Amino acid sequence: MQSYVTIIPMNKKLIVGNWKMNPVTLDEAKKIARKIKRASDSLVSVETVICPPFPFIVSCTSKNESKFFHMGAQSVSVEVDRGPFTGEVSATMLKEIGVKYVIIGHSEQRARGESDSIVSKKVKAVLDAGLSPIICVGEASRDEAGAYLDTLKNQIKQSLADIPAKFSSDIVLAYEPIWAIGAQEAMKNEDIYESSLFVKKVFSDLFGPDAGVKVKVLYGGSVNYRNAPDIIAIGKVDGLLVGRESVNAPGFVELLKAVDLLK
Ligand code: 13P
Questions:
Q1: Catalytic: 106?
Q2: CATH numeric code, 13-260
Q3: Cβ–ligand 1 contact at 18 (below 6 Å)
Q4: Ligand 1 centre from 62 Cα, in Å?
Q5: Distance, CA 53 to ligand 1 centroid (Å)?
Q6: Which of the ends of the chain has fewer CB neighbours closer than 10 A, N or C?
């Protein structure tokens, strides 16, 4: 199947809003989406993605096509197309409604049983459908000896097991240390830098140095409009995966504008 994944210019920052199970009403969802879309239209160096809950995706999709504002989904079935899989949503269906990105392996899904092997199957399904997976990895805790690096390496390798190299440029990695999700503060910028380099290194071990340089690595965990610019500038990540602040429309719009000002 032909891939229609957008080639993102290298300098564009990828800012992804993971709405999680928010908001409760469709009306509220549409309002948030409209405000974010409007703001994103005036940005020059940011690609914006919003990932509303499944039932709201279509209504949050703007009728006005935009090259740098896209819809994402928060999960997907391991089954590619259709069939007797009650409760599942396939990558083909997501593509059909205009979704471009799919979050896979989020720690909140992993905590409910999404193993690396399931993640790898979902990644394959998403890539086969011509969409881009945003694969989440991150350690539960840090230790002086650096065992968390092995955790990260194993997660990345296993989540990408059996993924052909031809897909490497369609993959996005999101580094989300679990302890920084829903916390008071984000991880220290210097530590984000170290981890994002490590993630790129593991990716390049799998797919080659060129792929390692090109892959987009996002940071996620307690990002807001105040800390976002430094996380990108000092943490040297290619974008952000934002939870709470992404359903707070004024805060998310501020965040997008602040990141857009970075050179
Ligand atoms: P918070 O930004 O609310 O910490 O959530 C991060 C996250 O899990 C994004 O996927």
A1: yes
A2: 3.20.20.70
A3: yes
A4: 24
A5: 15
A6: C
What type of residue sits at position 12? K
Mark out the alpha helices in 19-138 (DSSP H runs).
Answer: 26-40, 57-60, 91-96, 107-110, 116-128
- For this structure, is 114 an active site residue? no
What tokens does 263 get? 């050179």
Q: Which of 219, 214, 180 is nearest to 200 (CA)?
A: 214
Is any atom of ligand 1 closer than 6 Å to the C-beta of 220?
A: yes
Map out the domains of the chain as residue ranges: 13-260
Mean pLDDT by 10 residues, the chain (263 residues): 47 96 98 97 97 98 90 96 97 98 98 97 98 97 91 97 96 98 98 97 97 97 98 98 98 98 88
Whether pTM exceeds 0.90 = yes
CB atoms inside a 10 Å sphere around CB 62: 17
Among the listed residues 70, 106, 114, 245, the single catalytic one is 106
What is the spatial distance between Cα 16 and Cα 51, in angstroms, rounded to a whole number?
7
